[in-house]
Amino acid sequence: MTGVHNGEASEAVAERPARRRSATATRAALRTAAAFRFGKYGYEGTSVRDIAGDVGVDAALVYRYFGSKEALFNDVTGAGKIFEPLLKEPVEAIPDWLCAMLLGAPKDGEFTHPVLSVLRSSGKSEAVARLRADFSEVFSTRLAARLGGPDAELRAELLAAWMLGTSLVLTEIRPPALQSAPDAKLEKYLRSVIATLLGPAALDAGMPEAGGDCRAAGDH
After folding, report:
1. How far apart are CA 128 and CA 122, in angstroms?
2. pTM of the model as a whole
3. Which InterPro entries match (predicted)?
4. For an engineered disulfide with 96, which of 25, 72, 124, 141 has Cβ 3.0 to 4.6 Å away?
């Protein structure tokens, strides 16, 4: 896939009608798209326009949320950094964040999942240990402490495992029902699982109104 094709693919995505998202969801979707593109094309081979096109927003939003391409690159470099912003969001915004992350990957099937890129690196044992440490820090320790309630650490780790598995299936295996389902329908089921693992309080705060989805509250 050449740089020209890379740009053309992004333009094609950009032509899709943009859905309204919350700021939380937009930032998460941009981080996900950036992680995939930087992982495949590297820093020089990825443009802000390509990343914005994958998400269906104007490139100006990348600069608004991250300041620069370099800042976005630094934000998502490393297996754990893409999950760090999750810890800055209110618990009630976590469903938005996770929906955007799971559905924010480029849809052209040309991109290797960032976690697979880590696992296929030359120092595999070191990469796996680093990935485990990152997940433990973000989910087992820090997110679990914020969730509280019974089995908080288990729920946080199950959320991480479910999120990673779902993301890998969506981007690498691409089974027919998941590929053909509208985003709004996927989000309905995604939110049900997320809310259950976050706990009873999130079940009320995280579920959208009837007919709504995690992109309902837009800021652009």
Report:
1. 11
2. 0.67
3. Homeodomain-like_sf, HTH-type_TetR-like_transc_reg, HTH_TetR, Tet_transcr_reg_TetR-rel_C_sf, TetR_C_16
4. 25
